Amino acid sequence: CIRDRFCAGSLYIPLQKLKEVYEEKHPGLEVVIEPSGSVMAVRKVIELNRRCDVIALADYRLIPKYMIPNYTSWYIAFASNEIVLCYTDKSKYADEINADNWYEILSRPDVKYGFANPNDDPCGYRAVTVIGLAQILYGGDILDKLIVSKSNVKVEEVNGSLNIYVPSDLEVSGNLVVRSKSVDLIALLEAGSLDYAFEYKSVAVQHKLKFIELPEELNLGSPKMEDFYSKAIVHILCGTEKEKAIKGAPIVYGVTIPLTVENYDGAIRFIKLLLSSTGKEIFEECGQPFLEEPIYAG
């Protein structure tokens, strides 16, 4: 048995498909997958001393930031994604919203929108990054209207960069909704109790949701926009020793094996399958294209 495989919520569906292939190839072996926000997945290992054989995250940078050298010595970055704004036919102004006016629609008092908790899930701090970048790109007070005025988040501009501080005890109010991981917002969307949610494009594709594709300056999906993305810096878990500053960057997924691994051989076989043509095909079907070449570190 691969005892536990901690993963980002946005990786759950492709990894479930990969698990089926793995268990077919290795009869009698069971893969147990436990999804959560990626920051929470890391904290299970480094704070709660939970053991897992493989950890797969929506932001490979969390591995060198939190896990190397005490909890692992290497990682592989392997797939990409982008941020989109999801909605349904029930969403207010669904026939009006587009890639140019989305932030104006979200600022209307009768519209409910949400993102994942940045302290738990990279999709959350990426959503905050997107809103920060929109303010840099378009000007005005987009960040204040959509986040600061509805939460205890603070913002400071330094040398042309926006520093956004998310307290560890994040509180939100009004028509802004936050849940621990981004996929938790989908049920609210589908029930009509939420109008819009920031999600990964892969999640939107997997759940057959309608979505607005954002300009490449904002969607965190374009490597050539890396310098612009880095102008928004989200500080998560503020007020704790785990506080980290995370610069905006293109979305890249990563995987590693923690030093507390129990089934090392099984974990290696699982990662080899993940990086194989089978894994690539599964991920691309799920809207998460592989990088042209994986990035190996350590």
Give a description of the structure:
By secondary structure, this protein is α/β, with parallel strands linked by helices. It contains eleven helices and 15 strands. The protein has a six-stranded mixed beta sheet. The longest helix has 17 residues. The two termini are 26 Å apart. The model has no long low-confidence stretch (mean pLDDT 95).
Question: What structural keywords apply?
Answer:
6-stranded mixed beta sheet, 298 residues, globular, 5-stranded mixed beta sheet, alpha/beta, 27% strand
Rounded mean pLDDT score: 95
The order of strands across the largest sheet is 2-1-3-14-4-15
DSSP helix fraction: 25-40%
Approximately what portion of the residues adopt beta-strand conformation? 25-35%
Please count the helical segments: 11
The chain-level structural class is alpha/beta
Unreliably modeled segments: none
Q: Separation of termini?
A: 26 Å
- The SSE order reads EHEHEHEEHEHHEEEHEHEHEEEHHE
Number of DSSP strands? Answer: 15
Largest sheet: 6 strands, mixed
Radius of gyration: 19 Å
Backbone shape: globular
